């Protein structure tokens, strides 16, 4: 997570990471609520992502000084904003020569009242905000990712000021969450404990709290969908700030510089080894120590992994040197089956052959495709030439009239979205016409 991407985004890429997190404020973009937009603050982030070739998670909310949840009379406008935001992002991405992805996160820690406008937390209202956001975003761009939750680990309180994050997610399902998100996000900070220690913080305030949220998803039939850790980290100790942190309840979370480095790298290692359902993980934070708008003892300065003079703390150095194991939970993925076609025919009896090629969806997001062919001498034709993920095309090869030899062609499948890293896919076609009587006829077959 970055505070100032123009200066520091390169440090994310240099360290081998491919996502960063920033914020979009409805107030900034549509201040008059009339769908007349000022996209500047969005475009700054999208332009940086394009220039660096790094993916961006944008948390969409009001200003943090006005976290009043979306009211009934604002829901239609909220949905329209998400639709227009997704449309604008798709246009920007399509204009960028370097592919990058965008995910949108709905609000921040809605299970805590201070991030819920001081009102009693309300999972049903938050769920309506998610549903409206998802429906709007999908109307604007069917392929954009919508991340729900942004939940803070807590055991909850009885006065409505905080709600247990596991109970909150369960209540979201009761309110109709299912089929309206692409991932659930959590802020599974370490709270001073070792990343592997599930007992730390009364079994709640620890890095492994993400497991409990995933268990709720499994119970509701969504175990195949991922969890994103959109904020996590450890608080670097400070003798100067310790007494103040004791007053605000942070002092117990402090760790040494070496522990901060060690725990962060071990957290990634633990997730790689044990959590196939954990996908994007975003360290909080990179650079909050550098910028003047954070107070001297604001804890965010000490979660940072660079020093106030921009030099790396041990945590940055450790993460830079850590072996990266990117997850390929592919929201979008594409393959062709079979991935090659071949036929052998006698020159005395060339004949038409027809087979199907299926465009496989290896991810979670739907997409469409078009197919084109080369090598007209083979009479290579396709029907249909357009389809959706999971659909097939009939391939017809007509080599009649051709002499001895090997003839080749290509079928090219191209997805209708730049999200697909495999697109376009080329499926080669080979026809061998021979005159030896001992040759056997082979149908169009998959290459081994």
Describe the structure.
With 448 residues, the chain is an alpha/beta fold. The chain has 2 domains: 5-321, Glycosidases (TIM Barrel), CATH 3.20.20.80; 334-434, Immunoglobulins (Immunoglobulin-like), CATH 2.60.40.10. It has helices spanning 5-14, 26-29, 40-52, 75-94, 123-140, 165-174, 210-219, 242-248, 257-274, 300-303, 314-321; strands spanning 19-25, 55-61, 102-106, 145-151, 183-186, 227-232, 235-236, 254-255, 278-283, 334-337, 341-346, 353-361, 368-373, 381-383, 386-388, 392-397, 405-415, 425-434. The strands form 4 sheets. The chain has a 7-stranded parallel β-sheet. α1 runs parallel beside α3 (40-52). It is elongated, with a radius of gyration of 26 Å.
Q: What's the arrangement of secondary structure elements?
A:
Blueprint: H1 5-14, E1 19-25, H2 26-29, H3 40-52, E2 55-61, H4 75-94, E3 102-106, H5 123-140, E4 145-151, H6 165-174, E5 183-186, H7 210-219, E6 227-232, E7 235-236, H8 242-248, E8 254-255, H9 257-274, E9 278-283, H10 300-303, H11 314-321, E10 334-337, E11 341-346, E12 353-361, E13 368-373, E14 381-383, E15 386-388, E16 392-397, E17 405-415, E18 425-434
Parallel strand pairs: 1-2, 2-3, 3-4, 4-5, 5-6, 6-9, 7-8, 11-18
Antiparallel strand pairs: 10-12, 12-16, 13-15, 13-17, 14-16, 17-18
Helix pairs in contact: 1-3, 4-5, 5-6, 6-7, 9-11
């Amino acid at each position: 997570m970055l505070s100032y991407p123009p200066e520091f985004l390169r440090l994310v890429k240099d360290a081998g990471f491919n996502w960063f997190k920033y914020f979009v404020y409805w107030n900034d973009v549509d201040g008059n609520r009339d769908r007349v937009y000022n996209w500047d603050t969005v475009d700054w982030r999208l332009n940086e992502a394009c220039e660096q070739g790094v993916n961006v998670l944008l948390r969409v909310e009001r200003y943090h000084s006005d976290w009043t949840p979306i009211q009934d009379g604002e829901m239609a406008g909220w949905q329209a904003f998400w639709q227009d935001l997704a449309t604008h992002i798709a246009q920007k991405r399509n204009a960028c020569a370097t592919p990058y992805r965008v995910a949108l996160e709905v609000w921040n820690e809605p299970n805590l009242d201070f991030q819920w406008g001081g009102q009693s937390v309300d999972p049903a209202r938050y769920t309506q905000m998610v549903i409206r956001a998802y429906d709007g975003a999908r109307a604007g761009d069917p392929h954009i990712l919508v991340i729900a939750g942004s939940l803070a680990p807590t055991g909850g309180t009885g006065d409505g000021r905080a709600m247990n994050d596991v109970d909150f997610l369960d209540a979201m399902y009761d309110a109709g969450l299912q089929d309206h998100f692409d991932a659930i996000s959590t802020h599974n900070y370490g709270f001073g404990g070792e990343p592997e220690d599930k007992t730390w913080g009364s079994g709640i305030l620890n890095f492994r709290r993400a497991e409990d949220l995933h268990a709720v998803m499994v119970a509701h039939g969504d175990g195949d969908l991922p969890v994103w850790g959109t904020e996590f980290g450890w608080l670097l100790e400070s003798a100067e700030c310790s007494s103040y942190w004791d007053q605000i309840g942070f002092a117990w979370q402090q760790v040494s510089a070496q522990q901060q480095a060690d725990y962060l790298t071990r957290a990634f290692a633990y997730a790689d080894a044990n959590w196939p359902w954990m996908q994007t993980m975003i360290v909080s934070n990179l650079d909050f120590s550098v910028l003047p708008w954070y107070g001297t003892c604001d804890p965010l300065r000490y979660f940072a992994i660079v020093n106030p003079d921009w030099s790396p703390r041990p945590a940055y150095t450790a993460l830079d040197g850590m072996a990266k194991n990117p997850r390929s939970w592919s929201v979008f993925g594409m393959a062709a089956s079979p991935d090659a076609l071949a036929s052998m025919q006698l020159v005395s009896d060339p004949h038409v052959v027809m087979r199907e090629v299926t465009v496989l969806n290896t991810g979670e997001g739907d997409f469409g495709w078009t197919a084109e062919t080369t090598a007209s001498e083979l009479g290579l034709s396709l029907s249909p030439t357009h389809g959706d993920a999971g659909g097939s095309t009939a391939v017809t090869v007509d080599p009649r009239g051709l002499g001895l030899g090997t003839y080749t062609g290509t079928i090219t499948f191209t997805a209708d979205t730049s999200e697909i890293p495999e697109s376009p896919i080329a499926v080669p076609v080979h026809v061998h016409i021979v005159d030896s009587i001992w040759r056997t006829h082979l149908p169009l077959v998959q290459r081994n």
